[in-house]
Amino acid sequence: xxxxxxxxxxxxxxxxxxxxxxxxxxxxxxxxxxxxxxxxxxxxxxxxxxxxxxxxxxxxxxxxxxxxxxxxxxxxxxxxxxxxxxxxxxxxxxxxxxxxxxxxxxxxxxxxxxxxxxxxxx
Length: 122
Fold this sequence. Notes:
Layout: H1 6-24, H2 27-30, H3 41-60, H4 65-78, H5 80-89, H6 95-121
């Protein structure tokens, strides 16, 4: 019985969409970059966009899917500090903004689990 490729295709599309957003609308992503990192925030935003597009391509291709999905899990783990920064920055923001910022934190773990399932199914 063949394993469905749909989870991998959805993941690749989501990563690709977010990667494109890093270039099309970079300002919101700039705010997630800690000031303590060297270089400009915009360079980090573009770099993370390139990473997301690269991982999306790797997940989309059956030959590289296993490695790409592992890279996706590591990427989802790697952006977690940015989500923590977003939540800390939103402590005094209006409730909707606070809810989004804090709501993102527990969502990273299902994304990591999803990426690992895609890896295991590859």
